[in-house]
Design brief:
It is a single chain. 44% of the residues lie in helices and 14% in strands. With 375 residues, the chain is α/β, with parallel strands linked by helices. It has a single domain, classed as Alpha-Beta Barrel (TIM Barrel). The protein has an eight-stranded parallel β-barrel, surrounded by six helices. Helix 14 links the parallel strand 8 and strand 9. Helix 1 runs antiparallel to helix 3, helix 9 runs parallel beside helix 11 and helix 12 packs parallel to helix 13. The longest helix is centred in the middle third of the chain and has 19 residues. The radius of gyration is 20 Å and the shape is globular. The N terminus is likely disordered.
């Protein structure tokens, strides 16, 4: 598909207007149409689509179901929906014999109703494992448990998911393994081959979806991060040499407003990733204001400047077509619990604040999209 055709398709999808009031009422228990005028008409979804980029965010079912105004904002601004919790193991697997797709299916229907892409996160991670995992999974059955889980989950959404985070955060150089892999239950029970097994199982269950390796803390300009980047690149290179069906690298991009994240080593790394024939996705972006001054105007300005600087840097790379923030509004951000400010003030890491008003980050993201078109 050439760029003109891609942009035309993305613009068609950006309208999000294919749902009538009856379907909305049936799906959400109430009619939320008519609220968009309260939010304004500008849309990051539409701005991105004009440049051949898809913009989206993560959300949870309870947020979209219980907060109609937020739901309207989300469908207006986002071209991709990523379930924040509902596709993780502890949400899907109440027992080792059962799967519960109810939460994720609701989110899929929401995305479908508003012509959004639906993205899968995540198939393999050492966190968010269910309580039964520790007593049930052993070295004798771990491979079967892993591949059966992937086959069932990916198969359930075959043809419906634009891309999957297949393996999440597998690298941790500090753990001391020669290959740099993090010591996790999967390493202990299966060995390093769990990564290849996961990608092959996902591809077999749905050959049409894009399969992504997703990693954190590979952006800063320091020596420890450079070691991690080299390890990630070695992993991806080895997978490609073995013809493992990996199609892209997800860069989470949980960054600090004051950090240097556009350095030459990072630039070289991204070029080398593209040279492997892989796409690059920004999968979980937010900009933390944890260490910034209390003044909201100063904080918002610095957060916005980091968004524009970082996204403008990344959009130099032709394969970067997907930009996702981890949350759309500070009303619902994991940073409120995990990276609180010492002064007790609310954090403001996202394009919308807790009152669903656009922050400087919103304008910075739109500017980065507009400038990408001019390059």
């Amino acid at each position: 598909m050439n760029r003109r055709a891609f942009v035309k398709l993305a613009l068609a999808a950006s309208s999000g207007a294919a749902v009538g009031p009856l379907l909305r009422e049936n799906l959400f228990g109430r009619n939320i149409s008519g609220k968009a005028e309260l939010l304004g008409t500008n849309s990051l979804r539409r701005s991105a689509a004009r440049q051949g980029i898809v913009f989206g965010s993560s959300a949870r079912r309870k947020q979209l179901f219980a907060d109609p105004l937020f739901a309207e904002l989300f469908q207006q601004q986002c071209g991709i929906l990523v379930p924040e919790l509902e596709l993780k193991w502890d949400a899907l697997r109440p027992t080792h014999e059962q799967f519960d797709f109810s939460g994720a299916d609701w989110l899929y229907e929401f995305s479908k109703s508003y012509l959004m892409q639906f993205r899968g996160h995540t198939l393999v991670w050492e966190n968010a494992l269910p309580l039964w995992f520790d007593w049930y999974v052993t070295s004798m059955n771990a491979e079967k448990v892993l591949t059966d889980h992937i086959s069932t989950v990916v198969g359930h959404y075959a043809g419906k998911v634009s891309s999957w985070d297949v393996v999440n955060e597998a690298i941790q150089v500090q753990d001391g393994r020669a290959d740099g892999l993090k010591i996790t239950p999967w390493i202990r029970l299966i060995g390093p081959e769990y990564i290849e097994l996961a990608f092959r199982a996902a591809h077999e269950a749905d050959p049409t979806t894009s399969l992504i390796y997703n990693e954190n803390w590979i952006e800063p300009d320091d020596s420890d991060t450079e070691k991690k980047r080299r390890t990630v690149l070695a992993l991806l290179t080895n997978l490609k040499k073995r013809n493992v069906p990996v199609h892209g690298l997800g860069i989470q991009s949980h960054i600090f407003a004051e950090a240097q994240v556009t350095g030459k080593n990072f630039h070289q790394f991204l070029k080398e990733v593209e040279d492997l024939g892989l796409s690059i996705l920004v999968t979980e972006m937010d900009v933390r204001d944890q260490h910034l001054p209390a003044d909201i105007m100063i904080r918002d300005r610095m957060v916005g400047e980091q968004y524009e600087r970082y996204l403008s840097f990344l959009l130099q790379f032709p394969s970067v077509k997907t930009i996702l923030t981890w949350g759309l509004s500070s009303r619902y951000t994991w940073i409120s619990a995990h990276n609180k400010r010492s002064d007790g003030l609310a954090v403001r890491p996202l394009p919308y604040d807790s009152e669903l008003k656009p922050t400087a980050a919103w304008g910075a993201i739109e500017t980065a999209f507009t400038q990408a078109f001019k390059r």
